[in-house]
Amino acid sequence: MAENGEEKLIATVQHIIKTLGRTDTMTEDILKVFSNYDGRFSIDKLSGKRDAASGVGGGGGGGSSEEQQHVPMTSFERTLRTLDRQISQVINQERLIWSESDAAEGFLEAVDDLIATIKDLESAPLGNNQHLLDRADDLLQKCMFRLEREFKSLIERPDDAAPAAPSRPTGFDSDESDEYEYDEDIEDARIPIARPVTDYDVVIDALPPGSVSDLHKIARRMVAAGFGRECAETYVVARKGFLEESVARLGLRYRTAEDVKTAPWDELELEIARWIPAFNMVFKILVPSERQLCDRLFDGLLPYGDMAFAGASRPPALQLLSFADAVAAGSRAPERLFRVVDMYEAARDLLPELETIFSDEYSCALRNEVATVCSALGSSIKGIFMELENLIRRDPVRVAVPGGGLHPITRYVMNYLRAACGSRQTLEEVMEGGDFGAMSVGPIDPDRPTSSLAIHIAWIMDVLQKNLEAKSELYREPALSCVFLMNNGKYILQKVKDSELGVLLGEEWSKQMNSKVRRWNREYHRVWAKIVSVLQINDGGVRPEKLRVFNNYLDENCKIQREWVIADEQMRIDLRMAIMDSVVPAYRTFLSRLRAISDTRDVYVKYTPEDVEACIGELFQGTEKR
Questions:
Q1: What whole-number distance in Å separates Cα of residue 421 and Cα of residue 497?
Q2: What does residue 193 show for φ and ψ, rounded to 5 degrees?
Q3: Is it the case that residue 20 has pLDDT exceeding 80?
Q4: Which of 302, 477, 520, 599 has the lowest CB atom count within 10 Å?
């Protein structure tokens, strides 16, 4: 009896539904009302038995012709219509869905139901379901468009969708007035420039944890719906502004290859000085932070996290790499060496760290590009060294240095090489494997270090020495030529001694150079030997006329050599002493013999031995005028 009563009750409800449900929408609404009112009136029960009910309370007679012609909706139709109504109400609103957590969760549930319904439709026999599948796909497309908008907004403006405050873009906690400087050179804007960073063991939390969780939920739905690539592309677009601003805060502006090529070196040098810390900041903090964010947002959603990371990281990375590539392809002027070495070392030291960060198939190309730029910078370093050799060769042999002093090319080359050897390890690294055949360095000295860098520096020294020997021929006095070569040779030895240059050139090279300096010293003393030879006592005896010739020689040489230059103080003292030791004793002996045999001796005596010493002591005063 109870079962019969329940059947009559359900039949009555079905009759009411058929009578009032003039449209599919009205029928669905009535079904929902009854199903919510009493658990016995489930939608499945009411819809399943509705076709069998022909009448209620009137003895089971047929209903009206209109009722009999009504075709009931299928389960798919009802579900799809319900989802359409729920989803449309949400996606048509202007405010962000994620500004209300309940609305967001309800929308995601509806999307899940829609995806499940589409899968059911795809697995069911087509029959009359194709139009339903098309409707479901259209609705899913609308959902994805809206999810893209929400996804982008949550990344760009997380504070508009959630109460949690976003992290500072630079990852610091200090007040902005202390944290930034401003680049006044950039027109139409005062760009805050981040102060230098020394600790790169930092990860930037660019988004609040709540936003990351919401974004992951959205990404899961988009991937499940087959829109994973669109989701990754939306991420790239949304992160573009943050990443561009981050690079701008590092003080870098975009420069074309032509800009770099035509920029004055002092301006470019300043830009390189900014580039090095910016390069480290981007690849050691910004890019790893982006990797972590993508891994969290797309957790379990491979390969879309890798796609998003590669797409987002590429623009700032390429901005830095294109600048470095332009510098590497630019002028080979020797003054660029040290900055280019700094850039090379920054890229080289970073490569091992990029093995892990750029390990997937989408971002590995970025690591390869860093390696390519590193190689280009290395080639530039080798080219700059080659240019140093050319610079020495091109230095004109036209004007002699006054007084035989230190030539500017010697000072420049030796200080340059000494400073360059501060980066000896890096220079040896880039020089190894280089083709030096064109330099015609000749046979390698077995007693000389044979690394590519050592050979190259030895060759530069040989080129410098030949250049100096050619310049020494500009002097009319052979003695002054020797002074010039002594000055420059001594300076070279001083710069080589107790430095990496000495290690690279080897002990044998230093011995040979010292031998040359001593030879030039001996050749210089020939002019004084000629003067002393006048005082020699031979078969002709001691003649007063010899004293007159000596006086003329002494006057002439002291007057001339007083203006000559001996740059090294100790060599200047030693040279004066050597001249005194050669001249003064011979002069004193000659005077003694002359006074012993001649009554007219005082007529020819112009100088006392002490006067000769004083005259020699005033040689090389040109040193004090430099």
A1: 13
A2: -105, 120
A3: no
A4: 599
Q: Is the dihedral of CA 245, 246, 249, 254 positive or negative?
A: negative
Question: Above 50 in pLDDT, residue 570?
Answer: yes
HSE-up of 292 (CA within 13 Å, CB side)? 13
Here the tokens at position 266 are 């002092």
Tally of CB atoms within 10 A around 413: 24
pTM, entire model: 0.75
CA–CA–CA angle 355, 358, 359 (5° rounding): 70
pLDDT digits (tens, 9 = 90+) for 383-417: 998 899 999 999 988 889 999 999 999 999 999 99
SS3 of 238, please? helix
The β-bridge relationship of strands 191-194 and 180-183 is antiparallel
Determine the straight-line distance between the first and last CA of the chain, rounded to whole angstroms: 129
**Range picked from 38-52, 160-174, 602-616 for highest mean pLDDT:** 602-616
Phi, psi of 273 (to 5 degrees): -60, -30
Q: Are the C-beta atoms of 61 and 8 separated by less than 8 Å?
A: no
Tokens of 296: 């969290």
Write out the two tokens for 51. Answer: 């076709």
User: Are 251 and 274 in contact, with CB atoms under 8 Å apart?
Assistant: yes
Q: Cβ distance 121 to 76 under 8 Å?
A: yes
pLDDT in tens, 98-134: 988 888 999 999 999 999 999 988 887 766 678 889 9
Give residue for tokens 């010697």: 410
Q: Is the pLDDT reported for residue 433 higher than 90?
A: no
> 192 has which bridge partners?
182
Residues sharing a CB contact under 8 Å with residue 318, sequence separation 6 or more, in sequence order: 369
Is the confidence at residue 442, as pLDDT, over 50? Answer: no
Residue 145 above 90 pLDDT? yes
